[in-house]
Specification:
Amidase signature (AS) enzymes; 36% helix; two-stranded antiparallel ribbon; globular; eleven-stranded mixed sheet; alpha/beta
């Protein structure tokens, strides 16, 4: 199908949007000069898109309801059987609904994307199936993944399996809930501000945000290239390590994978124990204005277990950690507004796999923007204000400051093998009631990200592990390592897990 040629008036309008004033005569000359270029577009349009082959059969699936979806965590159920053998043979998995699964509907938590059916499998989906896993369906996620709570998806809230009516965390809300209630063994999560670690902490399970670029983001709806991460959510450390072994490594299609780091045998390396490891308790990770004193105390108590296991545990100060959330904000707000929304999810200026079907479908969001969640709309208004009035200055400066923040953590990690702090300052909160105020809806979306978001900016690996209870709700302890040293984090997490029931710490 030939691309539509512009009229003279359309060409003048386009030029004027760029500050270029064309007379009717000039526009006529431009239009004639552009004809060979339009012919080139016709040729591109006539060629088949060059996308990966879908290897495993599946059905479109269905939307479960009632007792089959007790926690509101399933978006679509569709069984896809992987290879007969592999590291994950016999394991079941849920795929976060911002991840492309060919032939299965994807909504990414937003009514504006509802009805979209991807034509490819994301790299992580193919790798899970190649390793023998069985996919059971797509898990609910928050509206375009812009909430740390579990109340913004257009499909409805996701409940915490440990306490109905309470948040399961976000944005990988359904993934965490399905693992926590035992309906799947494994789940894929995404993390741009804490969206793997937040729901893991709220639900009392294990969530790893790998180093930036270790796991290919190919075929997953982006938020912002420099903070996009995806990783495993599981009920135990061994499954988490095995899953990362399968997911990690370059695919040649994701520009985030600038280092080209390969996977490692994490499930074996984790068994080395923690004797002699130096673990720094980050002072600035505690005592936030909304921190629960009992939660801070529980994390410090849990850290003592590492001392008993032979690690050298001591306090360390990283003053710049207190600035991390502010540095992350312009990148997340302006970057997401530009790339995820205005540039229809993919943007420009990078090489790799573009999911053109997603670009086309997502392009209609602007006509229905009022349907988006308040946390996302508020962020977009913020981002657009600074893009329009400050020309991206603060985005650029925040990226520069990210290098300084990275150096601050790297300096601490010269003296310590791991950094330790609470994953979140609070335990799971009540879901906002129907008709809740905008203030409550937005507050519940962003109230917990102070410790998690900075490591999305710097790209350090960080894992939430459950380490006790406060008033019957799980507490998450976060371990942070040097970039691409996930094995050291797994050593700490596995030793802690094997030392005894985390609920009894």
């Amino acid at each position: 199908m030939a691309v539509k040629r512009p009229t003279l008036e359309q060409l003048q309008d386009v030029a004027l949007s760029l500050g270029i004033h064309l007379s009717e005569q000039q526009a006529g000359s431009y239009l004639e000069l552009l004809q060979p270029n339009f012919d080139a577009y016709d040729l591109v349009d006539s060629l088949p898109d060059y996308v990966p082959v879908v290897k495993y059969p599946r059905t479109p699936g269905y939307r479960p309801s009632g007792e089959e979806n007790k926690y509101g965590a399933w978006y679509t159920k569709s069984t896809i059987k992987g290879a007969a053998r592999g590291k994950l043979a016999g394991k079941t998995v849920a795929i976060k609904d911002n991840v492309c699964v060919a032939g299965v509907q994807m909504m990414n938590g937003a009514s504006t994307l509802e009805g979209y059916v991807p034509n490819i499998d994301a790299t992580v989906v193919t790798r899970l199936l190649d390793a023998g896993a069985t996919i059971l369906g797509k898990s609910v996620c928050e509206c375009f993944c812009f909430s740390g709570g579990s109340h913004t998806s257009a499909s409805g809230p996701v409940h915490n399996p440990r306490r109905m009516g309470y948040s399961a965390g976000g944005s990988s809300s359904g993934s965490a809930a399905l693992v926590a209630c035992g309906e799947v063994d494994l789940a894929i999560g995404g993390d741009q501000g804490g969206s793997v670690r937040i729901p893991a902490a709220y639900c009392g399970i294990y969530g790893m945000k790998p180093s930036h670029g270790l796991v290919p983001y190919t075929g997953i709806m982006p938020i912002e290239l420099t903070i996009d991460h995806t990783g495993p959510i599981t009920a135990n450390v061994t499954d988490n390590a095995l899953m990362l072994e399968v997911l990690a490594g370059p695919d040649g299609l994701d520009p985030r994978q600038h280092a080209g780091r390969e996977s490692q045998p994490y499930s074996e390396l984790m068994k080395a124990g923690v004797k002699g490891l130096k673990i720094g308790i980050v002072t600035e990770g505690f005592g936030w204005p909304n921190s629960m004193p009992a939660l801070d105390a529980q994390v410090r108590k849990a850290a003592e277990r590492f001392s008993k296991l032979g690690a050298k545990v001591s306090e360390v100060s990283v003053p710049m950690h207190r600035m991390g959330l502010a540095i992350w904000l312009p990148v997340a707000a302006e970057g997401a507004t530009q790339q995820m929304m205005k540039d229809n999810g993919h943007g420009f200026n990078w090489k790799g796999l573009y999911v053109t079907s997603m670009v086309d479908w997502h392009a209609g969001w602007k006509a229905r923007a009022d349907e988006l969640s308040d946390p996302l709309k508020l962020t977009m208004v913020l981002g657009e204000y600074f893009i329009k009035h400050y020309r991206g200055h603060f985005y650029a400066k925040a990226q520069n400051l990210t290098r300084q923040l990275t150096e601050a953590y790297d300096d601490a990690l010269k003296d310590f093998d791991l950094l330790l702090m609470p994953t979140l300052p609070i335990t799971a909160t009540k879901l906002p009631a129907p008709g809740a105020s905008i203030e409550e809806i937005v507050g519940r979306a962003f109230e917990m990200v102070a410790n998690t978001a900075p490591f999305d900016s710097t790209g350090h690996p960080a894992m939430s592990i459950p380490c006790g209870l406060v008033d019957g709700l799980p507490v998450g302890m976060m371990l942070v390592g040097r970039r691409y040293e996930e094995a050291t984090i797994y050593r700490g997490a596995y030793a802690f897990e094997q030392a005894g029931d985390w609920e009894q710490v």
